[in-house]
Amino acid sequence: LKDANERLQREIAERQQAEDALRASEERFRNIVESIPIPVVIGRMSDGVILYGNRQFVLTAGLSLEELTGRRIWDFYNSPPERKDVLNHLLREARITEREFRGKRADGTAFWAIASVRPLKFEGDEAILTAFHDITARKKAEEELESLYQRERDLRRQLEEEMKKRVEFTRTLAHELKTPLTPVVLSSQELVAMLKEETSLRLAKIIERGSSNLSSRIDELLDLAKGEKGMLKLKREYIDVVKLLDDVVEEMVAVSGNRGQKLTWEPHTALPKVWADIVRVRQIVMNLLNNAFKFTPRQGQITVRAKREEHNLVIEVSDNGPGIKKQDQERLFNPYDRVEDDRERLSGLGLGLALCKTFVELHGGQIWLKSAPGKGSTFSFSLPLGAPE
Predict the structure, then answer these.
(1) What is the pTM of this model?
(2) Rg (CA), the chain
(3) Is the pLDDT assigned to residue 346 strictly greater than 50?
């Protein structure tokens, strides 16, 4: 009896020590969990009833410790059909896992969090510990970003539709203008060839120049519309750039002379042939020369040069005109855009430089400008050497 009593006393003492150690361990656990700056809640494994929530969880839930009594963990999930199933699944799994979810506070406001879940023993019960990492700010930023992406997609789609409408309108307009204009151009040319009387011939020449001018503007509109729609095609061949520039300069010398300007061409005899569309390259040079004529004053100098730079052939058209401001240079190659100060004295639609850029880029080259107020301007463009493989 004495031995049995001693054994009982030892067992009671050991149990007391174990209980004291458990309480001390739980107290240390509570102290640690209370110091964690994220919400932590412990729920019973069997039914999800909340056994404990730290200070951060109480603040997040918007309830007092007393008000948490009897509530279940899934009460804080924001999707009623899913919240119980989700937590039951986590409880049944009884393993460390993470899950993103949308929760709600006692006042009904929603929040996003990642729940880190793991099983443990708590106050004698099989329990589950859940730590909530609040990601509401991140989710809000993602939603705002997605909204901006959607808005950008909508705007891009609207812009593409508007561009298609504009291109189609331009093509239709050009066709409608070109059809009745063609016989006017041809008739005026025949009339100029037939007339001898000075007054009548002068009037016929005015009509011929005006109709030809209008025909050129319509051709520019058509080319621009084709370029915007990707329908503009090149007819490439090996071309002699020196001969092409010889012909262009010879033709344009009379124009510069009538304007009181001097046009010079500095040929380079060692230039290789270029795989390019001779009509489009000629059109680029003509447009750049016409642009120089408009900006260069009387007695001004315009110079055409060509040179080889590594794997490109570069053509330059320079003038000693007033130059172009930096802010104007940035939009000079945009269609329908011109230097505001010179708008009244310039004719045309402002398509020449935009078309030059389109033609150059179709060849795989680049076009650029060097200019400063009072120092003239130099327009340059490159054409890759050699045929594509």
Answers:
(1) 0.53
(2) 41
(3) no
